[in-house]
Specification:
alpha/beta; five-stranded mixed beta sheet; 11 helices; 19% strand; binds 5'-O-[(R)-(carboxyoxy)(hydroxy)phosphoryl]adenosine; binds zinc ion
Length: 359
């Protein structure tokens, strides 16, 4: 691919309204401008995201955020090569807002439209953010850990995904959020649990490590969440003391880290079976992406596992692990560069497994 490519991306699939412009030229990829509006305060009173509130808020703010992003970039509409939006999976009301906005821009400005799978956005972000001297080349092993997903995939290329394992019940981010709610740590749960865990004793509560030691790399978190509840209920009646909260959070986080590390061992073996070390086309990276990848204790643990198998653990910076539009613009850019665009009658999808992209 020669020349500079510049793509506008829009993200509205959950509770962040976001727009970003990314570009790739001879010097590599870069985020030119971005705007992100979190709806945290709108949803906090309900302890979770309310889809109807999310959709209305996206509708109220998206046009302004797109205009601000373009103004900050110093670019004009004519400088864009394509416009991309998350077309699923996600809360469908919000997804529709983003997709229709992007299609409107594409139509008005005669630009190609790209329907981005939100998970592909997470999956490819490490290729946007990592310095040129350590490029994340295909193939790589990906652990995608977010509020709605928990899976290992081999990323063979743009739009080329092989799923190795997934959760059989809750996603790991969901387990963090539910644990936080149970401990009275507020919403969103992941960062709150991580903060509380920093002051806690991870060995005080012996929590289960679901599926640890089993074959494959599937996950299960429902039992762990229930075990946290039972441990909390076994404490003296009354509100949880700060130290109890911290110890429960730390014990929970340690159990998650153990499970992820155990599952990663098996996933790495499966990855190496397909792309043998030392062979032509071997993979060199374990990438962790999605909101839970912002957790530094989990990153540290996975770094050790990866290193033991001569893989480099790479994670986007925390702000690009959680939902954002730069990842959508970047996935759009990678798809555009591969000659992949979508017709304007492409339908938004509430469910859209990543492997379905693989043609
Ligand atoms: O990728 P994301 O922003 O949205 C989805 O696509 O789901 O991920 C959000 C999830 C939430 O469950 C949130 O609690 C979790 O990521 N999360 C974390 C941390 N920051 C966000 N979990 C653990 N530790 C964190 N520091
Ligand atoms: Zn996400």
């Amino acid at each position: 691919m020669n020349g500079t490519l510049t793509v506008l991306g829009i993200e509205t699939s959950c509770d962040e309204t976001a727009a970003a412009i990314v570009t790739r030229d001879g010097k590599g990829p870069r985020i030119v401008a971005q705007r992100l509006l979190s709806q945290l305060d709108d949803h906090a009173p309900y302890g979770g995201v309310v889809p109807e509130i999310a959709a209305r808020s996206h509708l109220s703010h998206l046009d302004r955020l797109v205009a601000e992003t373009l103004a900050e970039s110093g670019l004009g509409w004519d400088d864009l090569d394509a416009v991309a939006a998350t077309a699923g999976p996600g809360l469908i009301g919000g997804v529709i807002v983003g997709v229709l906005t992007a299609k409107g821009i594409a139509l008005a400005r005669d630009l190609p439209f790209i329907a981005v799978n939100h998970l592909e956005g997470h999956a490819l972000t490490a290729r946007l953010t990592v310095a040129e001297d350590a490029p994340v080349d295909f193939p790589y092993l990906l652990l995608l850990v977010s509020g709605g997903h928990c899976q290992f995939l081999i990323v063979e290329g743009v739009g080329q995904y092989i799923r190795l394992g997934t959760t059989i019940d809750d996603a790991v981010g969901e387990a963090f959020d539910k644990t936080a709610k149970l401990l009275g740590l507020g919403y969103p749960g992941g960062p709150a649990v991580e903060r509380a865990a920093a002051a806690g004793n991870a060995t005080r509560f012996p929590l289960p490590r679901p599926l640890k030691g089993r074959d494959g790399c599937d996950f299960s978190f429902a039992g762990l969440k229930t075990a946290v509840r039972h441990a909390a209920e076994a404490l003296p009646p009354g509100p949880l003391k700060p130290q109890d909260m911290a110890d429960l959070a730390a014990s929970f986080q340690a159990a998650v880290a153990d499970v992820l590390a155990d599952r990663a061992e098996n996933a790495i073996a499966m990855f190496h079976a397909k792309h043998a070390p030392g062979s032509n086309g071997q993979g060199t990276h374990l990438v962790v992406a999605g909101g839970v990848a912002a957790n530094s204790a989990l990153r540290a643990r996975l770094t050790d596992v990866a290193a033991a198998h001569n893989l480099t653990l790479t994670a986007p910076p925390p702000a690009l692990c959680t939902d954002n539009a730069a990842m959508i613009a970047w996935a759009g850019l990678e798809r555009f560069a591969a000659g992949l665009t979508d017709p304007l009658d492409t339908a938004p999808r509430p469910r859209w497994p990543l492997e379905e992209l693989t043609g």
